[in-house]
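ping. complex inputs:
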Amino acid sequence: MTLGESEELAPPDDAAAAWAHVEVSRHPDRPYSLDLIARCLDDFIELHGDRQGGDDAAVVIGLARLGGRRLAVVANQKGRTLEERGRRNFGMAHPEGYRKAQRLFALAGRLQLPVVSFIDTPGAYPGVAAEERGQAWAIAQTLEAQLALPTPYLAVVIGEGGSGGALATLLADAVLVLEHAFLSVASPEAAAAILFRDAGQKQHAAAALRLEAANLLEWGIADEIVPEPPGGAHTDWDATAALLRPRLEERLRVITERGFDPARRRERYRRLDGLFEA
Amino acid sequence: MSISATYARSQAAPDAGAFTCAACKVTYPLAQVAGNLYVCPGCSHHARIGAHERVRQLADRGTFQEWDAALAGTDRLEFFDTRAYVDRLDEARVRQQLPDAILTGQAALHGHQVGLAAFDFGFMGGSLSTAVGERLARAIEHSADAGLPFVCVTSSGGARMQEGVFSLMQMAKSVAALHRLAEAHLPFISILVDPTMGGSIASFAALGDVILAEPKAMIGFTGARVITQATYEQLPAGFQTSEFHHARGLIDRVVDRRELKAVLAQLLAVLAGPSGEHSQALA
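pong. complex structure:
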């Protein structure tokens, strides 16, 4: 397959627009989870460890308040500095990160705390040690834990929502997506490698996958797109948080007050593609 | 000659009456290999088989009744990579004689009634489309409604890229459906065969109450080639095989295909037999 042939497959302007969206979501100055948690939530206190022998810094868990409400928080965390990027593994969790999330869901259920998740991960870490310790099993069990969680649950995709690693903290009662964030079955690079046998076709893959936030709203996967400051969240973290915080408060109020039922959450994800009669 | 047998053979040898093992390269008469459940008579390599052949091997003769036979998906994203997705689908449907990459139904297995699902790797790599996810979820729910144990034989590369984020969401759909089975206290036996990767092993396939695997099946979240490209790590011997995961406590038993039906029957006799009620067990 040559570049010339594949350029006919997706109009270049579509591909450029889709790729621009991905680049904003990955901007090095984009606010990460802890930046938004510090600006949107009150009294956040971080907890550590999966209680099974590991503490994966690619996943952050903790307790906080929002308005008058107590919360449990789980978030993917990327690093800003070279040292922190390594320590946080670029936001790509090992099994211990997913087990840490499971611990947080269990804690929230026991203490009757609503959960807010912040999603910003290229995906689960693709490494030997992760596979040896049951990466797939850890993700599957986290999906199960979310669908059993007996308390209100709100998810916010703030940057990259890559693959099964993102899904591990996405299956909430309401899903918010920042304007320049995305959710995808695979990174555009991985999709291009599979579809075109050429990771360089990432722009075309991004266009073909239609991974912009607006599509998630149209398809019912997201409930709301939260606007970012002009140019993107990286231009002004405070303004981004000021736009997000009232939406978190309002969504939590609605989820809590409409009579909460985890069976309704399971039904949402059972019927999500809306293609088949019940 | 079933379509599945055609698939198994076409992988191995163009000669109509012969089967060349993909592992040891020795050629045997096809009838001999088929009679050995497509396990190589010489080296015991387990050749990939299609969904129809899998059901033929596991279900008691004449007992399989297909569920949701007419259910097929659509091309939601109007996806085009090097070819139109709809053309790939049409071709696979004709070749594999399936609406999509899974076959589901009720069957008897040495007399035990079960809900049975079998993935078809020859159909776009057994990947998770909305139709595959829907037929799987319905099979789980039909099993729950009918009070049947659920047995799923997975052979799947994971997500179907051509359905984008809808494919990803099939992981959630399948896990949501499994909650119904758990509520009914019915067992889920997950059988992993070569290969079971990505979104399939990271959702329903890893959640079996009992997990079995065929020998030397490749199983894992990320494929070895991608791991090597992304991390430059050395892969340990036997990486991501059934035996590798079994040694790490992730798979209950590695079972030869020629013993699979007998092992399933033994499990079903214990899990779903007349003394399966915990009240009686405690008495």
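Chain A has a mean pLDDT of 92.
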